[in-house]
Automatic annotation (TrEMBL):
Keyword GTP-binding: no
UniProt protein name: Cytochrome c-type biogenesis protein
Species this protein is from: Alcanivorax hongdengensis A-11-3
Keyword annotations of the record: Cytochrome c-type biogenesis, Heme, Iron, Membrane, Metal-binding, Signal, Transmembrane, Transmembrane helix
Signal peptide feature range: 1-15
C-alpha cells in the first residue's frame, strides 16, 4: 500500500521535460524571454513556460522552431496574436478593443475611492447630527 501511495505522489516527477537545442545562447535567451511573455490560452494566467497544458507545449515547440528559422520576436508574437488574439500577450496593445483592459483598473480605483469618500462624508454627517441632538 505504501509503495502505491509513493508512486502516486511522485507521479508528477515522472512527467517529460521539454529539452530544446539552440545554435547559440542568444537564441536560448530569446526562447526563455518569449515563453515568459506569452500567456497560455488554456491556463489564462500562466506563461507558456510555466504551463503543463498541451497547448502550451505546442506553443513552446512552435517558438523554438520559429527561432531556429530566424524569425524576429515581433514575428513570433504576431503569429500567436493572429492565432489566439491579444489575450495571449501580457501587454496587449492599446486600441479600441483593449481600451477597457488598460483603463479598467483605473476606473475601478477611482470609483472605489469615490464610494469610500461618500461613505465617510455620510458617516461624519450622521456623527455631527447625533452630537447636536445631545445638547440642550
Amino acid at each position: 500500500m505504501r509503495v502505491l501511495l509513493l508512486c502516486l505522489v511522485s507521479l508528477p516527477a515522472w512527467s517529460a521535460i521539454d529539452v530544446y537545442q539552440f545554435d547559440n545562447s542568444q537564441q536560448e535567451d530569446r526562447f526563455h524571454r518569449l515563453t515568459e511573455e506569452l500567456r497560455c490560452p488554456k491556463c489564462q494566467n500562466q506563461s507558456i513556460s510555466a504551463s503543463d497544458a498541451d497547448i502550451a507545449k505546442d506553443m513552446r515547440a512552435r517558438v523554438h522552431r520559429m527561432i531556429l528559422e530566424g524569425k524576429s520576436d515581433d514575428e513570433i508574437v504576431g503569429y500567436f496574436v493572429d492565432r489566439y488574439g491579444n489575450f495571449v500577450t501580457y501587454r496587449p496593445p492599446v486600441n479600441r478593443g483593449t481600451l477597457i483592459l488598460w483603463l479598467g483598473p483605473l476606473l475601478l480605483f477611482v470609483g472605489g475611492a469615490l464610494v469610500i469618500i461618500l461613505l465617510l462624508k455620510r458617516a461624519s454627517g450622521r456623527a455631527d447630527t447625533d452630537e447636536g441632538d445631545d445638547q440642550p
